Amino acid sequence: MSEAVTRPGITTDALLASLDPLLRAWLPRQRWFAGKGHPITDFTLVAATELLPPTSELGLLHLLVRVRQPQVPAQVTGGAAPALPADCYQLLLGVRRELPPRLAPALIGHVTRGPLAGFTVYEAMHDARMSAFLLEALRMQARVGKLRFERDPRKDIGDDLAPRVLAAEQSNSSLVYGDTFILKLFRRIVPGVNPDLELPLMLAREGCAQVPAPAAWLLADVADDLNVLGVLQPYLKGTADGWEMALRELAAGRDFSGEARALGRATADVHLALARALPTVTLGRAQMELIAEGMAERLDAAAKAVPALQPYAAALRTTFEALADLGRGEARWTAQRIHGDLHLGQCLRSPAGEWSLIDFEGEPSRALSERRMPQPPVRDVAGMLRSFDYAARSREPWATDWAGDCRAAYCTGYAEVSGRDPRMDPVLLRAYETDKAVYEVLYEARHRPDWLPVPLAAIKRLATNGPATEPH
Ligand SMILES: Nc1ncnc2c1ncn2[C@@H]1O[C@H](COP(=O)(O)OP(=O)(O)O)[C@@H](O)[C@H]1O
Ligand SMILES: O=P(O)(O)O[C@H]1O[C@H](CO)[C@@H](O[C@H]2O[C@H](CO)[C@@H](O)[C@H](O)[C@H]2O)[C@H](O)[C@H]1O
């Protein structure tokens, strides 16, 4: 492969030769890199765009890089890891002859070979000139190479908004512009329609007040595929995220059930709006069996990757079998588009006490087609129940009663708005909670190995039939 980037003379192969040693060392240290604990075999450039050509002063490179990793024993999981998919990552690289001291923390490395030899490469998001360039490109609906910057023409985007990198625990990377907008740049790029753009756009049309409406977005057309690379939306100033709030209240020994109930109500509001905006389906016997099979397959895959799961696998499988059995009987459920990865960190509370939901990307490791399928809304409910459990286990001794109160209050709030209490479907709820805990085991093993004991404790509870949320 030696496609030209934008300037004659530089080919993608040559560019990659320049960057290879730097990326090899830098990528695995990034929070959003999903292949931790595995060496990198090689890189390929899916797309490379010079947003600003490297001159003697500075340049801005936009890259989509595919990272290949072998199947090796993983230190983090203590056993054989599954073959990793060759993930594609979005990188915004600043290129300068000399890095000013204020940008030192953004350093990726000094290039010693290839067409960029002699340049210093750094994370461009930390450079205000680069971030201003991105906002301006969205404002002006620029097209550069394969990149399409688009916007909602009805939304005003100011041209003088000071950018800053969001300091948050997140799977992607975000820039805040003057406390007015937030631009999320997706890191792991999967071709197709990203629900984090699709669903908020639909919800905005539906007049749903609980989800910030996209103002602009960044797309790339690569090999006939649409790729969603970023979304700009209003920044909800002064909001607190549910995870931080929950931890604060826990540490102070305060009850959180009033907020949990309000969160249940907000979740149901969003579910109702999604059900109005997009088709819903009734799940028949075959679909329920497929759902239960999918859960069992994910469990098997996770147990292969994380041996600590293995002692519980047989017991967990009975939960999924119970779900399939129920589907074979008279029970029927409605499926619709849902959030897909709902947890406390996705909920923002305004100073007036209103909750908003963000980040509709779904579980990043699932196929996009799967993430965009209608699903029982109880899956989101199960995600939130897990999140109360996560918060409770963040301290010693574990605040099990605190979590129990929140879980119950959340279901109550949900029922008040939706008319259906999730606890009335205990088999379904338990199956989805188990499926989520299995996902979390794999997620933590890949991203945050230190957190692995948290979902593993839930696995143990669910496998030994410990108390799930009881129906009242
Ligand atoms: N519209 C918004 N207003 C204010 N803060 C936001 C907004 N969207 C996201 N955030 C902040 O950014 C963090 C990460 O956002 P999120 O969409 O969850 O990204 P990721 O997919 O990377 O996890 C959130 O936890 C929240 O603190
Ligand atoms: O960052 P995303 O929102 O895309 O979600 C991923 O990362 C989450 C952690 O940041 C992870 O959530 C898990 O940890 C949370 C505490 O940090 C906890 O509240 C959630 O219940 C738990 O699932 C999420 O699973 C993952 O997809």
UniProtKB/TrEMBL annotation:
Signal peptide: none annotated. It catalyses: D-maltose + ATP = alpha-maltose 1-phosphate + ADP + H(+). The keyword Calcium does not apply. Residues 26-127 form the Maltokinase N-terminal cap domain. Pathway: Glycan biosynthesis; glycogen biosynthesis. Belongs to the aminoglycoside phosphotransferase family. This is Maltokinase.
